[in-house]
Please model this.
Amino acid sequence: MSELLVSGLKKSFGTRELFRDVSFRVRRGERAGLVGANGAGKTTLFRCLLGEEEYDAGQVRYDGASPAGYLEQAAQLGTGTLCEEFRGAFEDIEALAAKKARLEAAIAAGADDGLMEEYGRVVERFEHLEGYDYESRIRRVAFGLGFTEAELQKSAAHLSGGQRTRVALAKSLLREPEFLFLDEPTNHLDIAMIEWLEGFLLSYRGGVLLISHDRFFLDRVATKILELDHQTVTVYDGNYTYFQRVRAERRASLEAAWEKQQEHIRQTEAYIRRYRAGIKAKQARGRQSQLNRLERIVLPPETAAFNYFAFCPPAECAERVAELEEVSAAFAGHTVFRDLSLLVRRGDGLAIVGPNGAGKTTLLRVLIGELASPTGRVKIGSRVKIGYFSQQHEGLHPERTVLAEILYDFGLDEPRARNYLGAFLFRGDEVERLVGELSGGEQSRLAFLKLMMTGANFLVLDEPTNHLDIPAKEAVEEALMAFPGTFIVVSHDRYFLDRVTNRTLVLEDGHLTEYGGSYSYYREKKGAEEKAAAENAAPPKKEAPARTPSPRPTAKAAAPPRPAAGDSRREELLARAEAELAMAEAELKMLEREMNDPLLQSDPEKSAAIAAAYADKEAEVAQRYERWGALAEKA
Model:
């Protein structure tokens, strides 16, 4: 079995030791999440494992495989179309396809000279690389990450930062290497895409190493956690929740042992002082020798965390904090949403979720008055003071120090300002750094602290945990849970939403749907709704031969006429249904290949799981085909 073996790895930059004595292994089929604070050295460790960075000592060895897939945080793309960018991951397969075509032409023309033997070798290699399926693999991954067929033909040079991240992620996934390295793969992905990525990785047969601050994602995907903390790596065999529990238990056990040892040391030292010169001097010297040989327990420093303190409570306000009545928004002739209504009550913690581009930030800007709605009205309640967290942090002053940013704006004395800053992980000399020199995550922490200190009783938050590492996210969560006012937040961080919110609003296709609970409650209810709809729509199941999939109609078969060009809404829905159908069919084909894998067939448990997944996916394809057909027939 392929595995990655790391032993005694050490890396320094000048006098700063980044990590030392790092040892762990990752086998094929395992998914290891690498966690740690920003700046701990996670990306550098990845680069050392990939051979892109030299290390000072230790060994990295790949038994039976070599690394091939790597998603970096900064994506570099070419100038061709998006499809060409993806096809670049299959240059060797396309070269084989061209050679295969040349040989076929030569053989058809009557040439001999041993061409059949060479042709057989080329075909065997082509099939081994799954050359017949790589086009469908491109579309399965591209559609799963939210790209449409039309977008595949557009230039990659004009993609946004989020789209570039998705392209780089797709390219790293396409070849399904033995070991896949992902550095912050969920950045810029909306929740639907993150959930698709989770499903992809859960069925991935190679080894996966991923850096992530997304705790929900780590809980779903990781089979082990590698914590890089205080220059070393500790391995925990389980997901993120298991890691948190075991780490806390280990810390508590170590502290208890340390306390017991300290008490023993105190008692022994007292005995030595008391009898050093008396008749028990010999016994005292013996105890001193024992004390000198004692291996002292060393407590590692506490990980930076939120120190609870109380902000000045905000002023009371009306029960009806904000109301939106049939508001709308449109840009360049494109309707983002129309006739949305919403009531925000005092004490609410509201989450707004939905796909990228659905208009979540636009809705917040309409709510706070930055954008005017051409329809309806926005009403803010009596004595409501709004505090807005923008992703751009416009309220920060780059030329000030962190400490000055708090002192000047809020008129505090220095001890109190340092206390507030310390709660948000700015400690010691860090408060003397210039705001302009802070990282994106550090600026987010400072901006959120300032927002909490404004005295606002209604917080409007747009992606407040972006760029934050896990300790910083926990600080923001603790502050929000202690906040006695009202807030509404746009976020893709499901763990964060589960901790702080009590209502979930889903903005999709221009409509707002409310669920009276946390994100997990919403997903549970949504899953039940989808299951009920599938059961009502699915045709009666027929018995099928074991491991022999029944043929399914494809999106191209017996296609009804497309809707009229003027019906843009129906065209959009039909295009999306076609993309979803194509992706589901590609995933069905992937499951079919797995069902026929001899290695999997030798494992009854895995074989049964894949068979069940195949049956579920087959029902999904049937449901999606019916939806597509119904949309097309309405044209």
